[in-house]
Amino acid sequence: MTISPPRSPRQNIAAQDTANTLLALNAVRVFEDRPFIYTSGWASPVYVDCRKLMSDAARRTLLMDHAAALLREKLGTSIDCIAGTETAGIPFACWLAERLNLPMVYVRKKAMGWGINAQIEGDLPVGARCLLVDDLTTDGLSKIGAALALRQAGATVRDVFVVFNYDIYPQSKQAYADHQIELHSLATWHDIFSLTKVMSYFSPERAKEIKDFLQDPMRWSVEHGGAGALPNAQERTV
Q: pTM for the complete prediction?
């Protein structure tokens, strides 16, 4: 598991609340007979379903308040537009745009084939400094693709926010760095796994399986049918 940089007290509280919330909502799902396969092709024994936050107003408010406070603290006035990703990023972008009093657009996964900014919906301000928002990130490739679409449409994108960052794929940080993007998140797998150990949330067998995955997700994926094994797995979009 990768080591995250030191956090502020505010970030620690946000991470703890996020981990508690995801567990309380049963948003941390564990495979039964077949691993989850992400759209990136990686196989995983676990899947974090941040979409469950949409249906719990109190917990959603708590985490979005944390997110807005942290983004004000870290980014200040360096952004002037929120951009959500289709589809999971759209509601989180809406809630953040409302709190930060900023305009919002969203980025389609594929261009529609017509219009000036065929992949961007909404009025993108000229030269907008956009914060890209999504629910979570695994290896970061889909976020980088969305950021590049915004840049092609004339925006400046240097920051990405997600509720949950897996923070275990070694190539992810390098990919963001290569594209001059800083990733911001409320919590990572370190936060969730640390809490589940205290709670004895997983059985010893499941906990060992997940620990093996977190320590070397690429090896675990190859050994469990990742990369091209979609027909034989529970396919999930992340």
A: 0.90
